Amino acid sequence: MSLRAQYEANARYNRWMNERLYALAATLSDDDRKRDLGAFFKSIHGTFNHLLLADRVWLSRLAGGPAIQITSLAEELYADFDELRRERARTDDAIDAFVRGLDDAALAANVRYVGRGRQVEHPMWWAVGHMFNHQTHHRGQITTLLMQLGHDPGSTDLIALLRGP
Predict the structure, then answer these.
(1) Is 41 helix (H, G, I), strand (E, B) or coil?
(2) Residue 161 pLDDT more than 70?
(3) What pTM does this model have?
(4) Do residues 102 and 4 touch, judged by C-beta distance below 8 A?
(5) Do 82 and 50 touch, CB atoms closer than 8 A?
(6) For labeling, which of 18, 25, 65, 87 is most exposed (least CB within 10 Å)?
């Protein structure tokens, strides 16, 4: 199996989990979504915002777009949940398109960007793998927050998606 095939599976998983978690979060009140539950980005809404922000930063770095200027990794992009959800879907579309355009040469090539105030260079596949790992990490936090509020997200395993219904 190629790295591209693995990343295509990761992109499918990313979309699948985002759709499921946003659907479950939509059943909560805005106050519950924004309640500070002690997570790194405080709330479900804050963690969703962070994930969207980070994915956009990574896409701009990896796809060669203009650098995204941020003031904080906790910066709120969208206070309105419905708008945040629509923008998440748009960004998942962009991730899917980006991954479909990858090939072995692109994944092996070095990517260069400014990260944390310094020039960084490493193989593209490191960054793509990190992007998907980062998403999984923070979605795990969201599932914990949902469970704390009494909402079970069900199976979150990649293998469950790959096996199908």
Answers:
(1) coil
(2) yes
(3) 0.94
(4) yes
(5) no
(6) 65
